[in-house]
Amino acid sequence: MASDEPKPKRIKLEEKKLSQNTLFGMGNPLLDICAVVDKDFLDKYGLKPNDQILAEEKHKEMFEEIVKKFKVEYHAGGATQNSVKVAQWMIQEPHKVATFFGCIGKDMFGKILKEKAEEAHVDAHYYEQSEEPTGTCAACITGDNRSLVANLAAANCYKKEKHLDLEENWKLVEKAHVYYIAGFFLTVSLESILKVAKHASENNKIFCLNLSAPFICEFFKEALMKVMPYVDILFGNETTEDIEEIAKKAQSLPKENKKRQRIVVFTQGKEGTVMTKGDKVETFPVLEIDQSEIVDTTGAGDAFVGGFLSQLVQDKTFEQCIHAGHYSANVIIRHAGCTFPEKPDFH
C-alpha cells in the first residue's frame, strides 16, 4: 500500500494546473469611468442619484466633461468582461486563463481599456474599428449613490466575420473548455453566440448564459430561444419574476447536448442563491455582511458569476462554485465599482 500513497497527491496537483485560455467570454466591453461628481453635474444631464440608464443624445458630451472636470478612475467593465476579470482574479495563476472578445474603437478610451484588461491579466482580443468610439459607462458618485450612464457605442459593432471567424481568433475559442456570455450580447451578435454555443455543445464543453436583465427576456425572446438548446448553465438574478418557476421551465426546455444536464442558478441578493438540478431545487445562503460595510452593489451579480466560473474551470462541484460566487460578490460589494484587493482570501 505504501508505494501507492503519493498517487492521490499527484492527481490533486494535476487538477489544479490550469492552462491559458481555458475560460472564454464574449460581450460588450465598456470602459468604466468612475468619479465623485456634484449635484449640478447630475442636474445638467438630467440624472437621478441612483439609477442605471443607456446614454441618449443629450449625454454625449458628458463622458468628456466628467474626465475634464473631476478626478476619475478607469476600470475594464461591461458585464461579461467583469465576470471573466473576477474569475481571473480568483484563479491568480497562471495569468490569461480568461480570454475575452468584444468590440472597441481606435481611440484613447480603447487604449486605456486594453491597458486595464492587461492589468487584470485577462487575454483580451478586441475587434477594433473606427466608425464608433469605445463604449463607456460613467459612474457618477454622489454620497452613497451611483448614477450609471452606459454608452454602448463600439460595443454594438461586433462582427462575426471580421473577428470571430478569423483563424487565430477561432483557435482561442477552441482552446477553451468553459464559455460565458451575458444576455446583453444577444442584442449585438446572435450569430457569434450561436457559433460559440454550437462548438461547445458538439465538443461536450460547458456553455453558460446569463439572462442579465428583464428586457432581454421581454424583447429578445426569439434570440434567447435560439441559444437556449445549447445552454448548460443558465444564470439569472432577482429582477426575474418567480425564480423557482422560471428555473423549472428553463430546466425543461429542449437541450442539444444530452451528456450534460442543464443547471439553473439564480441569485437573489441577500436572500440566497437558488440552484436547480433535475427535479432538485436547492437554496444556498449568502455570506453575512454588515450593512455599513456595503459600499456598492452594482457589480455583485457579475462578481458572483466570476467566482462561480473560477471553480467551474477547475472541475469543482457546483456547491463549491456557488460558495466561490458568494465569496467574490461579498468582496466586490465592499468596494466601489467592480474592483477588488490584490489577492483573494478564498479557501
From TrEMBL:
Manner of cofactor binding, per the entry note: Binds 3 Mg(2+) ions per subunit.
EC number(s) given by UniProt: 2.7.1.20
Keyword Kinase: yes
PROSITE patterns registered for this protein in UniProt: PFKB_KINASES_2
Cofactors (names): Mg(2+)
Domain of life: Eukaryota
Family annotation (InterPro entries): Adenokinase, Carboh/pur_kinase_PfkB_CS, PfkB_dom, Ribokinase-like
GO molecular function term, any single one: adenosine kinase activity
PANTHER family in the record: ADENOSINE KINASE
Keywords of this entry: ATP-binding, Kinase, Magnesium, Nucleotide-binding, Nucleus, Purine salvage, Transferase
Subcellular location as annotated: Nucleus
Catalytic activity of the protein: adenosine + ATP = AMP + ADP + H(+)
Quaternary state and interactors: Monomer.
Stored Pfam families: PfkB
Function: ATP dependent phosphorylation of adenosine and other related nucleoside analogs to monophosphate derivatives.
Active-site residue list: D302 (proton acceptor)
GO biological process terms, semicolon-separated: adenosine salvage; AMP salvage; purine nucleobase metabolic process
Protein name, UniProt field: Adenosine kinase
Pathway(s) served: Purine metabolism; AMP biosynthesis via salvage pathway; AMP from adenosine: step 1/1
An annotated GO cellular component: cytosol
